[in-house]
Amino acid sequence: MWKSSNQKNGYMVVTGHFIDSDWKLQKRVLNFFHMPPPHSGVIVVDALQKCFIELGIEDKVFTITVDNAKYNDVALRILKDNFTLKKKLCFGGRIFHVHCCAHIINLLVQDGIKEVKGIVDIVREGVKYLITSDSRMIQFSDIAKQLQLSSKKLILDCPTLWNSTYMMLATTLEFREVFPRYQDRDPGFIYVPSVEDWVKVEHVCDFLGTFNVVTNITLRTEYPTANLFLSELWRIKVILNEKFVDDNEFIRAMASMMKAKFDKYWSECNLLMAIVAVLDPRYKMIIVNYCFLDIYPEAEANRNIATVKQALYEIYNDRTVDTIQPSKSDLDIYLDESAFICAEGSANKFNIMEWWKVNTLKFCILSKMARKILSIPITSVASKSTFSVGGRVIDPYHASQLPETVQVLICGVDWVRALHGLMKGSEQEKPSHVEYDLP
């Protein structure tokens, strides 16, 4: 849901994701329309169904990715029931509702950051104090130069975005020796963390570094990332388990808060993440077996592994109803073959889309399933990036237009960009924080 800068108008964006015949990931703004309050689940689902019917895609919707707003949960539950009645859902609808992974990670880490809120507030206010005056920045910079520090910028975060808070803390940490020295020259500067506080900041940055890497991976929008997320989910689980028994009490408290949120959203088997991971030829069932046994208790892990296999075959069989199947299916052959091994030094350059494009004839039916599954976005952030208006707020120019005009402008720009191959350039988002260079 988007809001205009004057907060009077609400808008909903519906973005379609698909993989074209050349195995390129595509996304299009299907509609961008005015949503008057209240934004209840019933109103949202009515708007979605109207959009699907107008576009003639009501029988082509495979999954829907949304953030975790309550009205979205209600809307998706109603929509799922409606689709179930028409028998249009795959695997009983268990992969229909996709929770935005980036949003869950944000909620998870924000809970952890609450444990060190006092320190974060001191650092944030200190940065604010410095950046509001050129003379303060010059004096602060002079001290940094005297100490021969290589860092040359301060960062002010957006408090609601944890990764920007992480960047602010990590950058400010490099100036820990500058803060008390600057206070000696400016008694009005009262935002100096104690030695113990700086140690905590160091531990927090070390802790959150893993989450920053995971977020950067999942937010890339130019190609699918869902196949990578199961291993990242495992990485999060491992770091939470480690920090849950850390020697530092405040780190244990952070980990406890974050672990509770993790278990709330990911304690149950996430079928979609597992299925997409299996369709990565480098991993297949190997990664599911390994990660599940680490994430869940053994008995539960074995049940979940069996569920993943069942889901794979049910989704595959949905695509073979009208075809004569050989004794051994595409899926059987794919799973039985050894995992694909990248050439030495090329693992980071592996392109899952290119692999499936090359192997389409070998796996005629399975490749159709892969094209469908790999197009599923695991984050709704990609929808925000389409408009280059920075976040979910419509800029003053668009806000001054009639809702119908805004709809035409937003949809039209996206379609023209796609027509002329300018989609990649449109996905440059504004940073989540503000950087200030030292003089």
UniProtKB/TrEMBL annotation:
<dbReference type="InterPro" id="IPR052035">
    <property type="entry name" value="ZnF_BED_domain_contain"/>
</dbReference>
<protein>
    <recommendedName>
        <fullName>hAT-like transposase RNase-H fold domain-containing protein</fullName>
    </recommendedName>
</protein>
<dbReference type="GO" id="GO:0046983">
    <property type="term" value="F:protein dimerization activity"/>
</dbReference>
<keyword id="KW-0539">Nucleus</keyword>
<dbReference type="Pfam" id="PF05699">
    <property type="entry name" value="Dimer_Tnp_hAT"/>
</dbReference>
<feature type="domain" description="HAT C-terminal dimerisation">
    <location>
        <begin position="330"/>
        <end position="415"/>
    </location>
</feature>
<keyword id="KW-0479">Metal-binding</keyword>
<keyword id="KW-0238">DNA-binding</keyword>
<dbReference type="Pfam" id="PF14372">
    <property type="entry name" value="hAT-like_RNase-H"/>
</dbReference>
<dbReference type="InterPro" id="IPR008906">
    <property type="entry name" value="HATC_C_dom"/>
</dbReference>
<keyword id="KW-0862">Zinc</keyword>
<dbReference type="InterPro" id="IPR012337">
    <property type="entry name" value="RNaseH-like_sf"/>
</dbReference>
<dbReference type="GO" id="GO:0003677">
    <property type="term" value="F:DNA binding"/>
</dbReference>
<dbReference type="GO" id="GO:0005634">
    <property type="term" value="C:nucleus"/>
</dbReference>
<feature type="domain" description="hAT-like transposase RNase-H fold">
    <location>
        <begin position="221"/>
        <end position="318"/>
    </location>
</feature>
<keyword id="KW-0863">Zinc-finger</keyword>
<dbReference type="InterPro" id="IPR025525">
    <property type="entry name" value="hAT-like_transposase_RNase-H"/>
</dbReference>
<dbReference type="GO" id="GO:0008270">
    <property type="term" value="F:zinc ion binding"/>
</dbReference>
